[in-house]
Amino acid sequence: MSKLGNLGARLHRGEVGYDFVRNRKIWYGISILITITAILGLTVRGLNMGIEFQGGAVFTTPKTSVSVAQAETYAQDSSGHEAVVQKLGTGGLRIQVAGIDTSKADHIKAELAKDLKVDAEKINADLVGPSWGEQIANKAWQGLAIFMVLVVIYLAIAFEWRMAIAALVALIHDITITVGVYALVGFEVTNGTVIGLLTILGYSLYDTVVVFDSLKESTKDITKQTRWTYGEIANRSINATLIRSINTTAVALMPVAGLLFIGGGVLGAGTLNDISLSLFVGLAAGAYSSIFIATPIVADLKEREPQMKALKKRVLAKRAQATVEEELVEAGTAGGPLDDEPEDVAPAVVGQRNQPAARNRGRGRPSGKRR
Amino acid sequence: MSWPPTRPHGAGRPEREYEKVAAPKKGQSASAQGKPGRSLALILIAIVALTGGMFASGHTTPRLGIDLAGGTSITLKAKSGQESAINKTNLDTAVDIMERRVNGLGVSEAEVQTQGDRNIIVNIPKGTNSQQAREQVGTTAKLYFRPVLATEPVGAPAPASPTPSPSGSPAKKATSTASPSSSATSSSSATASAGATSQGRALTDALKADATTSPSASASPSTKASASASPSASGSDSAAKLQQEYAKLNCADPAVRAHAGVGAKPNEPTLACGQNGQKQWQKYVLGPAELAGTDVKKAQAVFDTQGAGGWKVTMDFTSAGTKKFADITGKLAQQQSPQNQFAIVLDGEVVSDPYVRQALTGGNAEISGSFDQTEAKNLANVLSYGALPLSFEEQSVTTVTAALGGEQLNAGLIAGAIGLALVILYLVVYYRGLSLIAITSLLVSAALTYVIMSLLGPTIGFALNLPAVCGAIVAIGITADSFIVFFERIRDEIREGRSLRPSVERAWPRARRTILVSDFVSFLAAAVLFVVTVGKVQGFAFTLGLTTVFDVVVVFLFTKPLMTILARRKFFADGHSWSGLDPKRLGAKPPLRRTRRPSAPVDPKEA
């Protein structure tokens, strides 16, 4: 912990840090690559839509000795449709039959109960009409759209429109990646998946908002100094909140991992598994995007502002002078020990561009004297 | 901060605190440091009070949804020829009727709710014949108007309803109707059915209307009926059988009641049960149906402003219905009581049995009597259901056995426990002593959530389903994050070289803003999902929103005050190496060098 704690301290002071903003092009590139893969996967492979979206029935039986293949034949015989059977962690079977009418399902259930020699009352049945999934999906899209509009408005007021846009991009990025993973891996999309996906909304933004908050705070008086450009301060903000971001992501993923483990390992399949799977993918994408995508985008947008451009110019000019100075000093003190740290010069110079020359002279002299 | 984010959940406290922090001196002494005990006391009292309320209400566990408790959940979607017919009023009417029908099966606690703008959810708990229930909600209710042949009250008044006549006016009504019924007892030889006929029936509803008599016995007993063989041939043996069954029929027994008249064809006489105005069960022998529910165009409950009539129900008939109604009322008006009554039968249960004064040919009628508002509304609902231009389509039917439900609940709880344990472990390892605060806060939050969920069951019908459990588990992360934000801020202040107490007070306003902004976003997501979506998504959104609100409450009223108090303890204030606040471990700058600004941040390269 102490190492971590130290790391936190060093991150806080900026002694260590990764330049997220300068290297943003790399991360943009990676994200664009992932997004393209996701979209390709989506168009080529498509999503594996669950029973909820096609209409049909899912039967879950208690522990039975009937084999999967055998159950499949039983189910196909009784329904006349393709059936998919999975063995569950409990020893039971999960039998999916697509494309049947809800009214026919009772008959199939009775048949199955007879074939599998279990009590019909002990079979769980989930019967879904063909338009139910569509309705849920439509509502979800509707919710998504409303939420995005509201949250952009909110962020634009609470922060500023650039951050709102960056947050939106990050959000879309997360959702695309999650959907893409589903398409590529071929996980089944169910009701639970939709729920998980919708939760990512809140969570992805939650994470982004914390970074933005710190960014907003540290850039409050940005035009009054010439030490750092906006991009550098943004980078510092990310680094300063990095420990929190890591902690938060870890803490958020742990319960979800618990759900995934229990849902996938013990129950086999079902709502728990579906929700936690999409959440897991989405949360991971969300943590990544709030650090690597959202803030760099803000920096990018912000540095296009005339004010920030001017600031950058000033900062760069000053730095150029500082290096010139340094060289001069070095030239002047050639062979001699390097005097006080060059950084100490910087604060003194703040905001005055005509002074350095004089300073330089003043500075050169003592060293000259010393020689 | 220029924008204190709107707190959607009450309590003017943060606002006040904010002002005080703006004036640091006052703020520190007054709210931040001076009164932590008060907030703590407040939240503890609130929890104790809520817990007390929970035990007092007798609902010590959250109500479980179908997927956890077992049972059947049916989602129906309204369909209609015209879009405008799918509106709230019509859906509510349908819900009322369905509730009546499902619970009429002898099922207790079946619940019917609208969801979204066109869905109805029917939840039937385990232990019920789900098949039968599904048929009941899936098929259209059967509403018939049948002439009463004989009637008789059964047993004692239904328990827990001492209801005498509700007000003065019904009594008045009753006197006017009492005379025909008492005379009827002596002269009701027609059906030979026991002299007891309609004795206690004081509150016969009166049916009256404007139209004049045009009896014209144009016979044609219910056009439908004529299709099949001799309808009311009343073959002596079948009549006798009916008579026997009638004598045996005990309407006070719910099981018997549920089967009375089941499967009766509209064109045959039948038996039925119904509750009269005094909540007494009454049994009936009814003639073949003369009108069906579809003959009613519209029915509504109105308050009779003229005369002291009180609440009454008016009906409009379709053109075919008008003719049929004229015929039946023409016939009935000439009969003696009880045979001048007709019964309005919904799924075999008599919901009303008004008597007829005269034939009604105007295409409308009104039923008046001793209604209170709800009774009138209920009857109007029943009557208009047949006319409801809606049909329902099964969207999903989920049957969960109690075994699987229990399993899912266990799995959810285990997952929650694992998640919580991992989070606590992580917090302990990373934050050491500070994790104590985080863990107690998490526990307070959990207690609050549990108690409120238990209380919301009976109050707003909240049922904990699997997605809701998921929502609660996911919320562990959101709640823990608030503490992380706060702790990291405090540590940052300590790294600046401050001692603990000022650090806490300086960290709090900044952490608070972050927590509010991010929780608001999370709450917004939950609220939008709750309003827009349907089905399981809603349950999930609800818990997520609820826990987000609790997160804010707990952080403000519990975590912060606790932190303030503990900051005075030596263990924390001196930065014990296990407190999680050890300046050395945090790499705080020695105070001596405080003047020197950190230089490295300028340096963009990796270290």
TrEMBL record, chain A:
GO terms for biological process: intracellular protein transmembrane transport; protein targeting; protein transport by the Sec complex. Keywords: Cell membrane, Membrane, Protein transport, Translocation, Transmembrane, Transmembrane helix, Transport. Residues 360-371 have a biased composition (Basic residues). The lineage of its organism: Bacteria, Bacillati, Actinomycetota, Actinomycetes, Kitasatosporales. The chain crosses the membrane at residues 26-44, 140-157, 164-187, 193-215, 246-269, 275-299. It is a multi-pass membrane protein. The keyword Magnesium does not apply. It holds the Pfam family SecD_SecF_C. This is Protein-export membrane protein SecF. Part of the Sec protein translocase complex. Interacts with the SecYEG preprotein conducting channel. SecDF uses the proton motive force (PMF) to complete protein translocation after the ATP-dependent function of SecA. Its main location: membrane. It comes from the Bacteria. Forms a complex with SecD. Part of the essential Sec protein translocation apparatus which comprises SecA, SecYEG and auxiliary proteins SecDF. Other proteins may also be involved. Residues 111-303 form the Protein export membrane protein SecD/SecF C-terminal domain. It is found in: Cell membrane. Belongs to the SecD/SecF family. SecF subfamily. GO terms for molecular function: protein-transporting ATPase activity. Residues 327-371 are annotated as: Disordered. One of its GO terms (cellular component) is plasma membrane. The keyword Transmembrane applies.
